[in-house]
Design a protein that fits this description.
This protein is α/β, with parallel strands linked by helices. It is about 45% helix and about 20% strand. The protein is built from twelve helices and 15 strands. Helix 1 crosses helix 4. It is elongated and about 70 Å long.
Length: about 375
Amino acid sequence: MKRLLVILLVAMLSVSIVGCAGTEEASDTIRIGVNYELSGPVATYGSNTVDGIKLAVKEVNEAGGINGKMVEAIILDNKSDPAEALSVATKLMAEENIIALLGPATSGACLNVVPAAMDAGIPMMTGSATNPDVTVDPVTGETREYIFRTCFTDPPQAIVGAAFAMGDLGVKKVAIYYDNTNDYSKGLYEVFKSEVEAAGGEVVAEEGFSADDQEFRPTLTKFKNAGAELIYVPAYYEKVAKIISQARELGIDVPFLGADGWDSPDLVAIAGAEPLNNTYFTNHFSSSDTAPVVAEFVAEFQAEYGEVPGSFQALGYDTAKLLMTAIENAGSEDPQAITDALAAIADYPAVTGTLSFDEAHNPIKEIAIIEMVDGEQVLSTKIAPSK
């Protein structure tokens, strides 16, 4: 039933797009569709990303716009619902005369929108959907021509995490504690384990927990007795906070390492600042990065919103800036010309790392390692994935 609905909506969209093309109504602004989660269970992701997008559009317009035209962001709420995300995309493309689409934030919503964008030939960019299928058709293995992302996918951050553990921290024996009910966590666990073993390290213990678990001390005790020198926990912040808090209560003082699912103020609120010392995670961005492009962005964001930006704000800013750069490089508002210009982008100085797109329209860039120091996120280093 769901698939039938998608097919019908895409068919309706195709008719509408053809109708719009026939009228050739020129717009006095460059209209970009923004399809994000502004309400619902993951509204934080969408609203933070849109803050970055709005700042990027404001800066470009204050600098004179693109090729003499102002940029207009048409922002609609998909309510954190994949079906609504498709409905929003359809409305933006068929009724709002947009030339490109930003969002949604999550992989599920993006995968629901991708067929419509592909069918309409409208370039679409996401800053945070990490599922590989977003940009590559899993059936044909071919890159989806009009779909791009500015966030890294999951395997590169597991590769970088293993390199950091073995290299920078110098550990040889690791334990892995993952969420066996979550594909994100399981995927990171598998890649991290493979990388550690390939580098000559040893996984001395590994165990999964479920989303409902609250008691982690027995497993942590096993890890301690196995001689683990580091514990990798590729999970979301709530469980991570409880695991680390209980580990410190047991006197386990080895470093913990994780991934971007740790990135939330609630990590510190739940675990406390002290237990999180000597912990690290891979992430897209650090506001403590001293690179000039990052420092300038942080200052401008603080001036606009009165707060320090996080990863979603930075990724939203980069995604919008990249799209507007492609429009300028194309010298045209034709969606195909913009798509070609996006694919050709190389060494773009993004705030989340100097970026080029690979053949699968995924970014090639360094990944930040964040260290938690007395409750604050501090940039430890940046590492480029080896593959």
